[in-house]
Amino acid sequence: MDLYVCYGAFGPGPRHACARAHKALIAAGHQPTVVRTYGCYGTDRFFGGRRKIKELTGNYKVPTLILDDGTIIDGSEKIVAWAGAGEPSGQASS
Questions:
Q1: Domain containing 34 — which CATH number?
Q2: How many structural domains compose the chain?
Q3: CB neighbours (10 Å) of residue 49?
Q4: How many Å apart are CA 65 and CA 35, to the nearest integer?
Q5: Would you state the pLDDT for residue 94?
Q6: Three-state SS letters, the chain
Q7: What does the pLDDT read at residue 8?
Q8: What is the pLDDT of residue 90?
Q9: Residue 92 placed within a domain
């Protein structure tokens, strides 16, 4: 699974969406590959990683989780909820 983030999965978890998502995945026993997309706010369209996220989700925002089966989970709240649901690594519930 790939976790697309801004500049990394660091920072104070409660305030940083990418760190929150990464922390939840690790706590649930997952080991995502972290993919940095760079960019922020009005500059997103200039960064290839953010353009890829827009193609996949319709927006430039990260974090975005791409599971091994191609399922897309977009946004920290959804990623945290999925990780907390105890799904096996690489699978999403229907």
A1: 3.40.30.10
A2: 1
A3: 18
A4: 10
A5: 37
A6: CEEEECCCCCCCCCCCHHHHHHHHHHHCCCCCEEEECCCCHHHHHHCHHHHHHHHHHCCCCCCEEECCCCCEEECHHHHHHHHHCCCCCCCCCC
A7: 76
A8: 46
A9: no
Residues 24, 27, 28, 31, CA torsion sign: positive
Q: What are all long-range contacts of 66-72, with beta carbons under 8 Å and residues at least 24 apart?
A: 66/1, 66/2, 66/4, 67/1, 67/91, 67/92, 68/1
- Alpha carbon 76 to chain centroid, angstroms: 7
Per residue of the chain (94 residues), what is the pLDDT tens digit? Answer: 999 999 877 766 578 899 999 999 999 999 999 999 998 777 888 899 999 999 999 999 999 999 999 999 999 999 999 999 875 544 444 3
Q: Which residues is 36 bridged to in the sheet?
A: 5
Residue 93 domain flag: no
Question: Does any domain span residue 14?
Answer: yes
For 54, the domain range is 2-84
To 10 degrees, what angle do helices 17-27 and 76-84 make? 10
